[in-house]
Amino acid sequence: METYLSLIVGLYFAASVYLLLSESLIRMLIGVALMGNGVNLLIFTAGRITRDVPPIIAKGAASAQVMGDGAIANPLPQALILTAIVISFALLAFVLVLAYRAYETTGTDDTAEMRLSEPIEPAHLPKGY
Amino acid sequence: METLLAEGVVAIDTTGAMLSKATPSIDWLIVGPILIPLFAAAVLIILRRAVAWHPFIAIAAVGGTIATSFLLLLRVSEFGPQAMTMGNWFPPFGITFVADLLGVILTLTSGIAVFCVVLYAMGEITGRERRFGFYALLMTLLVGVNGAFLTGDIFNLYVWFEVFLISSFGLIVMGGGAKQLDGAVKYCFLNLIATTLFLIATGYLYGVYGTLNMADLSKIVGAKPFEGALVIISMLYLVAFSMKAAAFPLYFWLPASYHTPKIVVSALFAGLLTKVGIYALIRTFTIILPPAGDSWLMLLMLYAGIATMVCGGLGAVVQTDLRRLFSYILVSSIGFMLIGLSLGTEQSLTATMFYMVHSILVMTALFLLSGLVYNYRGTLDLRTLSGVNKDFPFLSLMFLVLVFMASGFPPFSGFWPKLVLISESLDKQAYAGTCAVIFSSFLSMIALGRAYAFGFWRPLLKTSEDEVRQTQFSGMKSLQYIPVLVLITLAIVVGVMPSYLFDLSASGAKNLLNSTAYIEAVLGGAL
Known about the structure:
The structure holds two protein chains of two kinds.
Chain A: H1 2-20, H2 25-46, H3 64-67, H4 76-106
Helix pairs in contact in A: 1-2, 2-4
Chain B: H1 28-46, H2 54-79, E1 82-85, E2 96-99, H3 101-124, H4 127-131, H5 134-150, H6 154-172, H7 178-209, H8 214-222, H9 229-245, H10 253-257, H11 263-288, H12 290-293, H13 297-318, H14 322-343, H15 346-377, H16 388-391, H17 393-407, H18 415-427, H19 431-457, H20 465-470, H21 475-479, H22 481-496, H23 498-513, H24 516-523
Antiparallel strand pairs in B: 1-2
Helix pairs in contact in B: 1-2, 1-5, 2-3, 3-5, 3-11, 3-15, 3-22, 5-6, 6-7, 6-11, 7-9, 8-24, 9-11, 11-14, 11-15, 13-14, 13-19, 14-15, 14-18, 14-19, 15-17, 15-18, 15-22, 15-23, 17-19, 17-22, 18-19, 22-23
């Protein structure tokens, strides 16, 4: 199961990098969103997938290690992913509004044309005064 | 005890999982620099409309943060690293906060920088921006930065990164001009990708080693050879943190965005944010992943550092905007810290820590000073800026002192770490590093000297006389000299009496290279 999920994670990252390399802000935004989801799936996979077992150490067992692999679910990845989902959601919401405002004020969503902060024409200091 | 339990309730033995004693009250000092500004941020949001109170609440909170950081520094320098675990769960299960010398020195210095920024902002930030939450965002930024410096859990470090990142997003767009939004888009996307890479690396780290506690990781990873998954994880961390710190191939977002926001905001960013990236690199490659700190990866970092120093210096020379010029000087100082970390000796790490303190003070002062210049002249373009020296000789003198500091003239604070790092890189036969440090100091001197010659020393241009007449001199503005003066004075004190900070940095570096004390402080209670 982990193998298939890893492949899907790879697919997510490939798609997101492809989109991030584009010059359009909207595509880049979708790329960022995909990357956030890819990471969440990655953490989920890294925590090992188990089915139908609770994250509770059985009565009498000294520790989780004694019970062996697959006998106990790992509760931590879910806590990590929940944190990551909330954070990436907030940041994505912010960047969405920012991209829209930038489009409104600069009149373009093409990053190659957004050169206001770094003008293209070279400006030189005079040689002396 | 057992008699109190009602029938049917099973008594659970928690002695193996939880601390039975309450946290000693002195340990609360460790989270003080996080809790105080967090509380202040909440109060500031509640009192959103009482804008007249905002600066005073912020000043009180940052003052409290500085005081607790100072007490913590005294305690850590006397007793070694201190740890506190949340919720009384034994580490590595509970989230740990650890104060060691590196973290505490940086907490104290960034507290001082934020204090000066708050003072400066009193005259700069109006009611409108206060209502938009300028001071609340400033406080949450400080919370995030201090949290990053003090946490002992790598996933928690990611959360603190996001806390100061979202605050910095809010601050960078405040004002909302077209140029500013353009810079903000670049800043936001690049930093978002950098923290996502950080999260990817952390996911792998957890998948491979099964723990996120830094001390626990140090114990587990310390004995492993540098191969396989560890190489990939280290590489991801290197790229993610280098992006945050603005290292060579990944620094382009910084000069594209740092000259666009309000001057207080860019001073704050220049002082604090890149240093958090460097801090994370130091922490990762000394304490968390020691094998990576002794590997070929450090050679990669050395060359990245050299390229950062040279490119930063060269970039600064061709700039015509004063703040963009400072941004490139900042990039070149990041290169210095990378070289110091990559050499990985006690001396070079000492130099890096010393230089970080110097850089926080001097870069904040430089950017704040550019704000003073802007108030008087209405421009920061070196092609039209002129005659500052004749009209405001004291301002001009302050700039000259900062130029000497930033380019590393003795007896100012930039000189000593450069001296140590040059001698250390000669000992380690990293001659390219030596050359880069000397060459880039030379370039910084040329760039800043030219800025002084054109913007300050040059007689007032005929063409800009009208503009100058329109800019009114107001009494409130002269109060804004104070924060810049405070920063310069501190930097002078550090430069004239370097031995105290050097001793602190040296014992901090010793603790970084030998993580036993750190591990014991965290896991000592659990063993």
